[in-house]
Structures are given as structure tokens and as C-alpha cells.
Request: fold
Amino acid sequence: MIIKNTGLTLLSEGKTIRIKAHGYSMYPCIKPGSLVLIEPIGFKGPPVPGEIIAIVRENGLIIHRMTKIVIKNNVSMYIARGDGNAFADDPVKIDKIAGRIVGAETTGENPVRADIRINRRPKYFINRIRVIGMHLWKKLR
Reply:
């Protein structure tokens, strides 16, 4: 909890933070073990569809691709989805978007560079099949 609060505080102060990615929700774009650089959302204005953003959740930050903006009662709501996820996330207001991913670094754990380019048409179905296949392969080994 302390690390989450520190990261959010740094972002709110206008600082870019670096965190280690976990999980496969953004596979193959961002693989587990990649280090991602998160810049405060206010630097370049609201996110656009296709950008990868960091969303504040109760248990920390989640990194997903912003898919669309919907306006309800004159309030913009942002919908994101992991490239390897079956479904989109619930809509969030801009105050729940902590930042955008602006860079990535390789690590010994994951020497493959993350692809953080804007992508408005990820191959969700194919990515999901890849993630399921990897999980099955790990269980069989």
C-alpha cells in the first residue's frame, strides 16, 4: 500500500514513475517483467483511444489500453481494455487515470522491449488465445 501511495503521490506532483509490469493482461504488447514509465496524465491532456494508460484501482495501478470515450450526462467516461483480456474494463472518469505509458525498459526477467505505440485495433481474440496457450503450456511443463 505504501508503494502505491508513493507512486500516486509522485504522479500527482508531476513526476514520471517507473514500475514493473506483472500479469498478462497487456500481452504481447507489454510482457511480465517489463519496466514501464508512467507520465502524469496532465502533461499532454486527456488520453486518446489506442494509448496505454494507468488506471487507479483499490489494489494499485492497472495498465490497459484506452479503447473509447463515452459521454454520459456531460461527463466523459473512459473505457480501457487489456490487449489480452476477454472484456473491457468498467468506464472511469479522468480522475481515476493516473497517467499514460510513455516508455518501457527491458529487464533480465524480460529482455524483449515492450511495444507501447498507439494501437487503435489490437487483435484481442488472437492475444487472448496466446495468453491461454501460455498458461496451459506452463501447467504442462
Summary: Residues 54 and 98 are 6 Å apart (CA to CA). The beta strands are 17-20, 35-40, 52-57, 60-72, 75-81, 97-105. The helical segments are 2-12, 124-140. The first strand starts at residue 17 and ends at 20.
